[in-house]
């Protein structure tokens, strides 16, 4: 990753480009719906938060958050990225399958080389068979701290909700640093020391009223009318922090997660990890006497899952205001604040995440019952030797912070993207196909006695797992005690998966398998593996390409908590990786 914001100067193997074939693919997908076109001008934005002097951030179209992409299922999205920033840039369309448009997925050096300063690239993709809420963000360095926005996927017919919403609101949760986030990421890599925590949490780019700042325009306001039903499209765009979300005097009915419908689930708190989305209905039916001023706080507070302890985090609360039209009086009593969970309330987090189930609908994918490949993958922290490019790393000290999956700490290539190497059959020297199906040793994964220097040590590599087209994979994700137990939000690009079961401690197939939900398991693209525990997921590799799987804590991606699935072509042109577009950026 550290190479992403350095000029790419290596010459690449020039691929055979077939623009006509690519155009035919796009035209075929356009026939399903409209073409929705945007231009993303990425550049400098001068902004002030927390009553600090104005600082320069990187943003899209001068907005924080960036623009919402609003489409209908089956539409084709065309986004012209114009990079006017001083940094290399890519955009990832988080949760979009990218079937037939694999080159548009966006992670730097996985599916494309970055777009350099003054460069441009056009992303084209279709949103067939996806409804709900997804999002887009920079996928390079720490730039997604300010380069992010929502994707609203409207259904062609009425959504299967228990009530029809009268209105809807995008609720983008984020983190704010009074610092240049690119500099933070660069220094973290060079030294091998994780970057410091954020200064604040935000709702739609604003920290709210509970920080020591009285400046104007620091708090988002959602206006509602009594007894209306509002759809909240909640997205956690924070770099490193899961969040609890509550609204004083109100409850929620969760109806979708990660653009997959759920059985309606009533709750007074939403728990959402970085990368996840939650669609929740909220009825504006608060007791009027609870807030004579007609204003209620929405509060977002951090969930700290680390055991025994993790890195420092901001023990603060972001707020927005839910304001009743016709009842609110800005000069009256302040908004009501909800009771908030303790920062380490793992019981509440697990209850929310484990109680969700899918709404099974005709014609929609169901969990596959036959499994071709079983994988048992440890996810966690560790240490490794300083890399040559870590110029400020203390080589006379013990190994530096790292992270890994099955003790393989991932390093992205620097001269050619993995997808280009895969397409041109040029993997030699770029990646190897030996990502292991099991950890190198079996040990007490969550036991305190396992946290020793020998078990913590990992090595750097660029390993992928190769899958046949349509292969069904079952993966046990096992958190470890190494350094600390922690809930890691694991995201897979290009594919959704079913969550069969989750629990704490070491995974035991004999006791876990009878509990598998094979009827209506929740479908996701990002799962928060329970802290000091495990989750079992199952998916079909029905999308050829190179698909990144990684922890959605930016601090952990930086240090190697990732791997890649190489999915081979299917038997037809429609099930094969198309040639790259003519304007694909070069390193």
SSE order and pairing:
Blueprint: H1 19-30, E1 35-47, E2 55-60, E3 69-72, E4 76-83, E5 91-94, E6 120-126, E7 132-138, E8 148-154, E9 167-176, H2 181-191, E10 200-203, E11 220-224, E12 229-236, E13 243-247, E14 252-257, E15 260-267, E16 270-272, E17 277-283, E18 295-302, E19 318-324, H3 346-355, E20 373-384, E21 400-405, E22 408-410, H4 418-423, H5 453-456, E23 459-461, E24 464-467, E25 471-479, E26 489-492, E27 497-504, H6 509-512, E28 523-524, E29 526-528, E30 533-541, E31 545-551, H7 554-558, E32 562-567
Parallel strand pairs: 1-4, 3-8, 9-12, 11-19, 20-25, 22-23, 24-32
Antiparallel strand pairs: 1-2, 4-6, 5-7, 7-8, 9-10, 12-17, 13-16, 13-18, 14-15, 14-17, 18-19, 20-21, 25-30, 26-29, 26-31, 27-28, 27-30, 31-32
EC number: 1.10.3.2
Family: Belongs to the multicopper oxidase family.
Domain Plastocyanin-like: 43-156, 168-326, 434-569
Name its key features.
35% strand, single chain, 3 domains, 9% helix, Immunoglobulin-like, globular, mainly beta, six-stranded mixed β-sheet, 587 residues
